[in-house]
Amino acid sequence: MLRQYQVARAAVTASTTSNSHNSSGGNHHGAGAADAGIWALKEPRDAVSAPHARPMSAKILAVGIALVAVVVLAVALIMGLEFPKYVHAQVSEDQCVINQQHPKYNSWCAAKRVASDEATAATADEKMSHRRTARVTRCRCTDCLRLQEWETATPHSTMSCQFSEKIIDYDNADSDNSNYKVRQRGPYVYTENETREDVQFNSETATFRVSRSHVFSQNRTNEECPTCSENDTLTVLNVDYLRQVFAKGGDVNYVLSLLTSFLQDVLTSNGLYVSDTFMTNLTLLGCLDNSCDKLPHVLANVSFGKWLQVSNSSYCKEIETNRSSAPFNVTELRGLYGALLNESALGTKLLSVDQADDLNHQCRKWASDVCQGVASKDVNDNCGLVHLLQECGHRSTAAPRVQEIVSSFFCPSDTRCLNLTSVSTPVFFTYLEALTDFILQHLVKVTQTFELLQRNRDLVVTMTQNDLAMGYFLYSDTDQGEVSRHVQGLLTEDWLKSDYSTGVSWTVDTCLQGRSISNNLKVREFNGSQYAPPSLLRNPAERVSVQGQTDFTDACSSRPTCQTCSASSQYLFLYLPSLQRTLTYTWRDVMSLWGVDVHRYWLMADNFVWDASYQVSCGLQTLTSALGFFGWISVPKVTVTQLSSAGGDLRNCSLPEIESFVDVEPVSGRLWQKKTQLQLNVGIRPQDVASPRWRPLNISYLSKAIPLVWTDRRVLLDSSEVGYYNYKVVRLMRVSCGGLIGLSVVSIIVLIVGSIIFFYPTHINRVGPAPEESSIANLHSRHLNAN
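User: That's the sequence. What structure does it adopt?
Assistant: Structure tokens below.
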């Protein structure tokens, strides 16, 4: 073919040259055509109208570009729509601890206590491990809760109130303690750790017990109170005293419950009572002459003979006359003091049982019936001498059976016998009145002074701030150092029992409940019950559920890419164990915490103004049964004046601003910060200060709420959790948003380019392709014919 093309071209060239010579004088057109040669030849019409490859390839290219744009857009949509679902799945997997094999189980709570725990905590672990037979997992949430501000009372009564009303007054105005007032001290800052123990995962719930430990933070305390320290000395109302008198029905019963042990210690330490045996020198307590003046001070205070001498009452004179001033012999004194050292005979044994107040009322009813000669069905083995003295002691007449019963207490045997059956009835009632005043007045005063006041256990006590917060030990004998019992501190109350066993149990839902992350750690039961304690309710028969959120709430699971989560709900319902009820929080605004937007919910003031189910009125929630003493919880910084002036009248309620809130990270629904401010208020009832005292008390705000302490607890998410969240959530959501926007823009640009190529193809080039053989032959033939 190439050869033929070359031959044809040579022929055309030769012909052209010949014509040029033959027509040298031809016109200009002929010369121009001859010069153009083969390039001046036009293609045939069919060649122009034939389909060419270049326009068709442009459309195919445009379609290909469009397909690429669609693929890029699909990738963008996948990143924009599926990445948020992936993030939510990762959040759910990360936060939903449903078994001990979960990868974050050890960060949810450590498997064992760390070495820095206190020795008492380690002892508790040993006790628990010995008494458990099943496999038990004990976990610890380290540093998950901090006590941000902890304030206590000051010398003179309680704390957290900046005013100077007189709370307690001693009758003796010259005393250094004559004016007890209230002022604010602190704050004292503690780091608080919660420990989860006995963790058990069931099908859709988790059960565990919780205890708390605290470490004082001197540096953080000094940031707010430069002069405060852990061992500051404070004078406060004694919560342990209030709890004891509440449990025993008043301070009279409380002091009587201490009488036997106090008297036994006095007699033993002075050699009058050894190994449950009265010594012959017991006669020192029965003197009725000047020899009583030689008695040691403590023995003189418990001597029946000495008391008769100095009482100057008419019945004392009658007894001396009846006895011809003869002292009491050892047999009579063994009968008298033997009854006082016998809790069953005295009737104080019942004061150590849980239902002491109810049993005491039964015994008082029995004694009243005996005095009136009425057969009573209320008698029980716990009733004793003090009940008869309380009901019959100052009567001039009573049923004959009274003399018989009283005599049986003082004369149980021939060697221990203060014989009151052989005396006449008038003399018996003289003895009865004297013994009543000696036991229920004089010995109660002595016991109250030596056992409570002088040993710093009375209504008002002085102690270190650390003892008040963390608790302390009481000793039965300060010289021997024998531990009587442990008193819980304000921070450890209800979280650690006296035997160091955990006190609070929880049953909570897991994410398996309803297959929703919103149910994570939602309260199902508290302390073994699904319902609030009846004693906290207005109607004890009502059943109020304890269900509420704790550390998580509704998550923003359908969050669109490149958009912030809106609040999942206007209200949150969080369960507070301090109040044993669920409180309502309302959404207010969006805050930035560690560079992440969180939704802030504030505690509603209505929670403390009124509640239809709980005993809440005018800022106070009654928690007497839960606290174990006459007490309330309120919003913080409420003074005794505000509490007493309202008097439960809702129209007079003027509560300070409530500074309790929670910050919720919306994507995960997790509470990143929780701040709760509450105030503990105590009340002093008339029966709490009814016992005879050498220095009587006047209570200015009797039966009113007196502030004791207010706390500011702050739960902050650990910084490592924030970093993990930024890595898992923020980074992926940014990639998702960036990918959606960036790839969408790229796909649109590519699609526009493809559209331009498709609808506006390029023009055909002016230089055509080399002709085929047939075309060359036809051109040559036409050229010859034209010539």
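The two ends are 26 Å apart (CA to CA).
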